[in-house]
Structure formats: C-alpha cells, structure tokens
Amino acid sequence: MGAAEKILGGKKIIRLRIIDMTRCKKISLKKFSEVYSAAKNFLARKLLFKRLKAKGEEILKVASKIIVASVQMDCAPYEKEKNLAHAEELIAEAAARGAKLIVLPELFSTGYRVELKDRELSEELTGATTTRLQVLAKKFDAYIAGAILERGAGDMVFDTAIIVGAQGLLGIHRKMHLWGDEVKRFQKGAALDVIKLPSATVGLLICYEIGFPELSRIQVRKGADILIYPSAFGKARYYAWEIASKSRALENGAFVVACNRCGQDSDSVFGGLSRIVAPDATILAGAGVEEERVVCAEIDLDATKKMRRTLPYLRDLNQKLFNQNF
Fold first, then answer.
1. Which residue in 80, 100, 207, 209 is the catalytic one?
2. Prediction pTM value
3. Which strands make up the sheet holding 65-72, listed edge to edge?
4. Are 254 and 111 contained in the same domain?
5. CATH number, residue 107
6. Is there a catalytic annotation at residue 175?
C-alpha cells in the first residue's frame, strides 16, 4: 500500500486527481509517487499531502452517498407488456430524480394473482424482462431490482428477485419462505447471498420474508449495507409491514428499501406504504396506501457504521450460538 493510500485510510481511489503544489498541474493518483519525489522541499511535500488528504476525504464522502428509489405501482394481472411499459415510465421518473438504485415490486411485470398462468407468464432469468431492464439500467446509469416469475426446469416456477445493471443480470434471490397458497405455485429457493455493487453491498429478499429476521441478519453478516424487499404485501396485514420494515433496519444497522405494490388483483388488496428506512429506523421517504408513487431518498452509507457503533448488535452477537443454529 503506497503513501497516498495510507493517507486515505487504505481506501483505493481510482483516477483521483490531485494538484502538484510545485507545478500547479493535475496528475493521477497513479503518478503520486513521482509528484512527491519531484516536490522540491519538505514544505511543498507537506502541502501536497494536505491537499491530497482533503481531496480524498471529499471524494470518499461523495462516494458514500446514493439516491435510491422505491417504485410503488399498480400492476395489471396477466398484462405483461402493459406493466413493463408502465414500469419503464416510473423508472425514468426515478432516474430523472437522480436515483441510482431503483426497486420495483414483487411480480411487477405480470401482476401477483396470476396463478392460472404462472408457467405461461414465467421466463428465464436472461429473458425479455431482464433484457429490457438492462437497457434501462444502461440508459440511466443505474441498478434496477424487482421480482419476476422465473421459469425453472420441468414445471418449476420460482418467485425470483433480480438486480440488473448495464452489464446485465448481477444477482438473484429465489423466495425461500412462501406465503399461503404460494406453496402450490412456486418452488422454494435454497440459497441466500448478497450482491456487491460498486457503491454498496445489497441483500435481496421478497415480501413475506421481511418477517424473517434471520435472513436479513445472515445477509448483513455477509456484508449487506442495504436490504431490498420487492413486495406484494397485503393491506390487511399492514401492521406487520409497518413494524418489520423498521425492525430489519434497526436490528441490522442497515438501510431498508421496502417496495410494495398498490391496487388489487382478484380478492387480494395490496397495502402500499413503500418506504426507505434509515439504520436508526427513521422513514426517510414513504408512500401512502393507495397511490402510485416514486419514493426517493438520498442515503449515506456511512450511517450504517455509525448506527452499528451506537447499537452494537452485530458486534455483541453470540457468534458461537448463531453459527450453531444458522
């Protein structure tokens, strides 16, 4: 690790521009050692270090912040093209407001109560929906998450959360804990992981899984800063959503992007209340029950470190007990 990196606390800053105090010339961090050697005296070197440190701290501070969006939308059952077109409009709105991480609801492209055509509406992970999201991610320089009907082998169908960037599909989570009659519709997922993005590490979970704290705790222990919940959560159980969305944030010292849909499919009425929750359980931005809305908030990932010091649940976790049971 070079002298320049030590000054920045071991953080590697790519293409950082600094000023050569002896020549007033912009150079890259890669050439810092050359500039340092060229400094004519101790004072010049000291000034150079001071400028580099200030610039590096400024860049690190900016890099820790990101605007996230939770897209609360109604979804028409069985009408995939209509839903995708509407989602594109809402994604564009989120991007226009500066969002770089945009979350859509559970089964946003098909509607939730489509059990008569689950297999017909399902698609492979690299299918048309993922491709369209990739185009949008590239256009808006953003990451887009949501949950779709995934076609598995044979007759299997999964309720699968995906996250897509300009490069394509970056990660998935197949719903592991199924609600009610979902056990008749979907195969259970069997893996739990996190996805590392340049700006943050995220954990994907789906709807009902917001009530299973073990899942988010495992993801946070794997490095998650942001917990994402694409959902089609029922209005009748809004009280569970209200408490769980805050609890998962507080107990993990993590940001929660809880994205619920609104409207009604068949006899299922959805509860909205999409929100972005800070590590101290503060709701940074939220929607009501019935309206469509793009909920945006700027989050500072440094807040996760601060909250984990203030309430050190992760530090004080009985690791042996946890490892034996989970």
1. 207
2. 0.82
3. 168-174, 157-165, 143-151, 101-106, 65-72, 293-300
4. yes
5. 3.60.110.10
6. yes
